[in-house]
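hey m, so remember when u said the tokens were messed up on ur end? i reran from scratch. heres the input so u can diff it against urs
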Amino acid sequence: MRPTEILMQEHRVIEQVLDCLEIMARRAEAGGKLDIESANQAIDFFSHFADKCHHGKEEDCLFPLLEEKGFSREQGPTGVMLHEHEEGRSHVRGMAKATSAVATGDSAATTDFVSHAKAFIRLLREHILKEDHCLFQMTDQALSEEDQLNLLESFANVEHDEIGPGTLEKYLAIATELAKRFRVTCQASNSGAGIGCCGHHECTSS
């Protein structure tokens, strides 16, 4: 399996939780009440799985390698992706702040949550499209077989050393729980045989 295939598998899981977040935001906007437990689970997922793990692999492993191969950070795709990662982090912080405010009785903060959630969903879906259909194709063309193997090893090191054993399984379980709760298509499970270094595989929600 190529490193880009692992990243694309992770994209499918991230999209799954984005679908759940969209339903949360829509319900909060319509009813004026935020599902705090689900919001906190989604924020936790985006902070750790999507950012620390997935974006960590890109920022610490993939992007530096591409820049070694001649991709320009200032005028090339890695700079754009890094900027969008930072923009996404800002929206996740905004959702976390709004959720905390709602939990302490500030129901008006629900509007802030919805605003950040909508912007984050739009940003990340467009970001994923750019990576899946442009950056990753360029990556596969630019990297040799040896580069690919070294990158896979680097990804495994991020998962083991930076994320920690069992952490990915925890967040895949959260993604599955949210998918079942909001009845969206489930792409992740913490059980059964894994595919790739993250153990992703499709499951059926009920």
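this time it looks ok to me. Confidence is low (pLDDT under 50) at residues 189-206. if urs says something different then somethings off w ur setup not the seq
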